[in-house]
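A reminder from the course coordinator: this example appears on the midterm review sheet, so study it carefully.

Given structure:
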């Protein structure tokens, strides 16, 4: 074990990777990030109504209210489990998708009055029929003596022992592959391949497996401070902070203040505590008692353990962590909400009529579709006034929702909406963050004045290396303008494909259309906390998402990640996939393994589709910023399996441990599936649907098929008529259908079911053909899945029998 730790530290210190933070000497290392959790052998995702009917639950009729259907289905599904100590609650972030008519119901298990944080059921319902569901509810004993006693297992040490064993196996694989052609082609292939796994090992196990136990006064001590300090020793990237906690434990314990947060108007809420004065955090930590499932020693079932669930916001991380309540307070699961990169208003608040922007802004930027400065020149672009997605434009928001107007929150301003002339609006707050700090409201942002003409110079020149940073800062006005423009375009585009208020999008004000508000994207340009990276933090709906973009010191003059649209789109897409998967109030569904990898893959896929055109081309990710033709992934995205040989089984190879490597395989699979639809339906040169008419209807134009009505006279959902627009819609809809913690199989099946809902399944075989081309056919499988994404996979290149003709 000691040898493995030494290897971890050696390999993790290697320089030259283009997706980490810069150190003081200009080299690059990865941001520390914890991410692991239990594997649930019993969880299922049923994506066919026939599977559901086989279990005996029949459709209830289109006249039955969806939540009544959900409760009837739950009572039937759980009839052998429900008891006075084992219940469920339907979460308030459940919603009906107005585009598809599907109601997405999210359910959390409650045992003896405490939630089971990984006990989730998601049910998808339309016209009285349960279309699909995912289920990870705990199925064992629920007697209070059996789930909260001193016998609680602490599987984190077992996770680390398992990871060490797998690390040894991967090292052996690297030796086996030595001398073969490696994907990165760097000349140090074996180091490049083992580095991601070494980083995972050292981040997740190095500090937490030191030979000590915290000085707990009682085995029954449920004080959250002890568990939280144990977590901070593992979470902090600063060894001096960890050692200070160990050396001055009693002093740190005494400084922590604990206050209870009461939910007067929400009797279903758990009792939440706020803990302040925590080392290496930037805001008070939220905590509540809950249960979590841990694997049994045999691995074929789970046991229920009592834990503290924490929300810990740090400078570079925002964690959702489950730590055992009983000493020695081991980490059971942890998700980092920070992910790296590399219309007339229906239902609006009639008390506040929407103003029309007095003057549309203009921006001198690289226009939509130009990925980076190597592809074209800047031009003057107009503010995109989409009456559906941004009905008050990009430079307006209510006074009471404006973080800069705190003084009027409890007064009555003469105007409801505030118009701005800077990069500050209802969807995005964009600014510099040269200091790399947590504060942002007072940071600098360009102000175009009454003209709202954001036209700023951008012409950096080569300088001495010591002056390169100052040279980049000279053009901050152009940089922030570009970040604001791209982020708003992404907001509006994603809105039109269904990422709206009820599904958890990012807006300060939601126009009375549902969902939680006060969560616009905080967008940091030229963030000073690192180089050669980008990341996005996605807390649950109602809390601001945070996008941090960095300079890249890979060329002279420095290259600005804010100017490479693909990187910005990738990061913003983390907010999309996290909020759509498992519901907008659950940000813990894409934390590790295949789920975490797909969180990266959707970002790469959408960024690539957005820049693509009808004239086919292969594409790299991060090529311009990294100053590397191949980009920052192992392979470019290509239909040519010589240029990109990725298949499902590629995940077994050395170098495919990190979520980015897993994600690029998923993105490649989606890229291949996309072109099965493009071959069938052709290509649309714009992904933006037509602007809404004055009466709120959306014209079909050349974008949608002719609208149809069903047998009941109800208008069917609009169906994009081209292959690329249809695939984007199916990907969005699939995210809403899939379960929390999805596998590749779950996400694949959800996309195929999304087509069934939208088109009646007319692309069933085309989609299966695309997935099967990269080994994800119906008989693909994985054995021995681990929390770290390990396992042995088998490809299947065939399609279902019905498609073989």
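Designed residues:
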């Amino acid at each position: 074990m000691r040898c493995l730790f030494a290897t971890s530290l050696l390999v993790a210190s290697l320089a030259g990777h283009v997706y980490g933070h810069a150190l003081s000497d200009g080299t690059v290392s990865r941001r520390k990030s914890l991410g692991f959790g239990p594997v649930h052998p019993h969880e299922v995702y049923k994506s066919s109504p026939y599977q559901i009917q086989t279990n005996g639950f029949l459709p209830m009729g289109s006249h039955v209210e969806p939540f009544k259907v959900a409760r009837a289905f739950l009572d039937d599904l759980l009839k052998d489990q429900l008891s006075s100590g084992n219940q469920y609650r339907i979460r308030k972030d459940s919603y009906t998708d107005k585009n598809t008519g599907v109601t997405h119901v999210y359910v959390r298990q409650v045992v003896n009055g405490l939630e089971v944080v990984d006990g989730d059921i998601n049910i998808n319902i339309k016209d009285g029929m349960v279309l699909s569901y995912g289920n990870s509810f705990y199925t064992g004993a629920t007697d209070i003596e059996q789930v909260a006693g001193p016998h609680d297992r602490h599987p984190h040490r077992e996770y680390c022992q398992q990871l060490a064993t797998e690390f040894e196996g991967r090292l052996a694989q690297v030796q086996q592959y030595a001398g073969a052609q490696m994907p990165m082609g760097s000349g140090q292939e074996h180091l490049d391949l083992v580095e991601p796994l070494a980083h995972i090992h050292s981040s997740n196990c190095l500090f937490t497996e030191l030979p000590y136990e915290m000085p707990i006064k009682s085995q029954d001590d449920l004080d959250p401070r002890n568990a939280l300090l144990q977590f901070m020793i593992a979470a902090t990237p600063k060894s001096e902070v960890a050692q200070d906690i160990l050396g001055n434990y009693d002093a740190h314990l005494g400084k922590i203040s604990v206050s209870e947060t009461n939910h007067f108007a929400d009797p279903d809420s758990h009792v939440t505590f706020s803990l302040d004065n925590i080392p290496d955090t930037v805001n008070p930590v939220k905590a509540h008692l809950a249960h979590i499932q841990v694997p049994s020693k045999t691995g074929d079932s789970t046991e229920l353990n009592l834990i503290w669930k924490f929300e810990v916001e740090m400078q570079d991380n925002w964690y959702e962590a489950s730590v055992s309540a009983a000493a020695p307070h081991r980490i059971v699961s942890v998700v980092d909400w920070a992910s790296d990169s590399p219309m007339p208003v229906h239902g609006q608040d009639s008390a506040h009529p929407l103003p029309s922007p007095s003057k549309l802004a203009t921006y001198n930027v690289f226009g939509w579709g130009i990925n980076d400065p190597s592809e074209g020149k800047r031009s003057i672009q107009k503010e995109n006034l989409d009456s559906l997605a941004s009905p008050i434009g990009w430079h307006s928001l209510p006074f009471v929702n404006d973080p800069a107007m705190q003084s009027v929150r409890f007064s009555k301003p003469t105007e409801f909406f505030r118009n701005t002339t800077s990069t500050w609006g209802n969807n995005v707050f964009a600014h510099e963050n040269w200091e790399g700090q947590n504060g942002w409201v007072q940071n600098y942002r360009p102000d175009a004045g009454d003209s709202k003409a954001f036209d700023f110079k951008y012409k950096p020149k080569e300088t001495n290396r010591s002056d390169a940073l100052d040279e980049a800062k000279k053009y901050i006005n152009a940089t922030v303008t570009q970040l604001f423009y791209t982020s708003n375009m992404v907001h509006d585009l994603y809105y039109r494909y269904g990422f709206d208020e009820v599904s958890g999008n990012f807006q300060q004000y939601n126009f009375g259309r549902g969902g939680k508000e006060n969560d616009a994207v905080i967008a940091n340009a030229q963030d000073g906390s690192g180089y050669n990276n980008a990341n996005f933090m996605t807390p649950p709906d109602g809390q601001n998402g945070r996008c941090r973009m960095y300079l890249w010191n890979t060329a002279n003059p420095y290259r600005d990640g804010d100017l490479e649209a693909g990187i910005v789109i990738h990061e913003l897409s983390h907010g999309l996939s996290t909020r759509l998967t498992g519901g907008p109030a659950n940000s813990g569904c894409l934390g590790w393994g295949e789920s975490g990898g797909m969180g990266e893959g959707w970002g790469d896929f959408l960024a690539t589709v957005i820049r693509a055109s009808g004239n086919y081309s292969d594409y790299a990710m991060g090529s311009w910023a990294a100053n590397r033709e191949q980009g920052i992934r192992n392979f470019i995205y290509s239909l040519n399996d010589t240029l990109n040989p990725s298949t499902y089984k590629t995940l077994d190879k050395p170098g495919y441990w990190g979520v980015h490597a897993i994600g690029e395989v998923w993105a490649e699979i989606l890229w291949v599936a996309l072109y099965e639809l493009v071959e069938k339906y052709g290509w649309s040169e714009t992904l933006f649907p037509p602007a809404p008419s004055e009466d709120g209807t959306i014209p079909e134009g050349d974008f949608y098929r002719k609208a149809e009505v069903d047998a009941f006279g109800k208008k069917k959902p609009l169906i994009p008529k081209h292959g690329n627009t249809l695939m984007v819609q199916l990907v969005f809809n699939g995210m809403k259908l899939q379960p929390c913690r999805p596998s590749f199989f779950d996400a694949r099946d959800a996309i195929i079911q999304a087509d069934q809902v939208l088109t009646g399944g007319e692309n069933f075989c085309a989609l299966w053909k695309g997935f099967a081309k990269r080994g994800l056919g119906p008989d693909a499988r994985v054995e021995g899945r681990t929390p770290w994404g390990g396992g042995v996979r088998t490809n299947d290149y065939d399609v279902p029998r019905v498609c073989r003709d």
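Residues 63 and 128 are 7 Å apart (CA to CA). The chain has a mean pLDDT of 85.
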